[in-house]
Amino acid sequence: MHKNFLALLVYFLLALNVTAEERIFCGIDLIFTHDNYGPAAEYHLKTQITNRTGRSVSAVSTLFYDMKGTILGNAELNCDIGRPPLKSGSTGQCSVLLQTIDGKMMEKFGTSMWTEIVNVQLERLISIKQCEVEGYRYTVE
After folding, report:
1. N or C: which end of the chain has fewer CB within 10 A?
2. By residue range, what is the domain housing residue 80?
């Protein structure tokens, strides 16, 4: 009985470790908004996460990659914005605001240059195609 319990415990811990390094699809959403100075562009990194842990998850720590597998950066994606944390076994969206090009830049550089900056950043950020979950932020319940 004791051996079976230890074997089950080791299996469970290994399963948690495997899910923490899973490569999943992720990508950038460009959202146009408005701030105190004028139009603003926000670049949000988003993905769908299935919580395979035994606890509620409010965020995931991720590395993000291009299509070739080159690492481009890291971020903590929030899973509980505007809704409860992801319960065990649930799937939901996790996201983070990576960058904002604000209205102050348009005010300073003008519409043409602001638009060029928005497009250049979009070209750079849309190369993000995969995320690898490195860890979880659990919710205290």
Report:
1. N
2. 2-138
